[in-house]
Amino acid sequence: MEKTLMKTKVEQHADRIKRLVGKEKVSTKTVESMEVWDRVRQGDLYLRMLPAVPKTAVLVEKPLRQLAPGTSMGSRHCIKIEHMAHTRVYVDARNPLCGPVLDALRPMEIEHPEHGNIVLPAGTYRVTFQRQANPAGNLKRVVD
User: Fold this and answer.
1) Beta bridge partners of 98
2) Three-class SS of residue 2?
3) By the 8 A CB rule, do 86 and 106 touch?
4) Distance from the CA of 68 to the CA of which of 25, 75, 90, 109 falls in 20 to 30 A?
5) CA–CA separation, 50 and 37 (whole Å)
6) Interval 51-74: pLDDT, tens
7) SS3 assignment, position 25
8) What DSSP string describes 39-89?
9) How does pLDDT run across 33-54, given as a tens digit for each residue?
């Protein structure tokens, strides 16, 4: 069989990421302290500190690192792999804008190739997605 010169979309995406990584380093913002109900933003994702894990939240036995659903570069909000061991992930989806609840026993870093990384102090956080304005007024999240 003849080898094809066409690259798959996955290979093209991998090449793009390699070029981006080679050109500039991802910045890291460290949040030294937060109070309950404070929030920080990373692109279209918000992390609000909670007083505790909500009673309705369900622990995810084998959680994914990625916090926003999707396959685009914009959905690559991920818990740093080394920090997964001390971060519990819960599902508590009250509406389409609610992401997981994170319970970090130690400081936790959320990585993103475009928005930069953010290091948060130990604590409990609710992930919320930015709302997309639409004439119908229904809840729909912005997709990067």
Assistant:
1) 128
2) coil
3) yes
4) 25
5) 6
6) 999 999 999 999 989 898 766 554
7) coil
8) EEEETTEEEEEESS--TT-EE-SS--SB-S-SSSGGG--EE-GGGGGGEEE
9) 999 999 999 988 899 999 999 9
Amino acid at 29: K
Contact 109, 122 (CB under 8 A): no
The encoded tokens of residue 3 equal 């080898």
**DSSP secondary structure string, 83-127?**
GGGGEEEEE--SSTTEEEEEEESS-EEEE-TTT-EEEE-SEEEEE
Q: pTM of the predicted model, to two decimals? A: 0.73
The answer to whether the CB of 38 falls within 8 A of the CB of 126 is: no
Closest CA to 119 of 100, 129, 106: 106
Q: Tokens 């009673």 identify what position?
A: 55
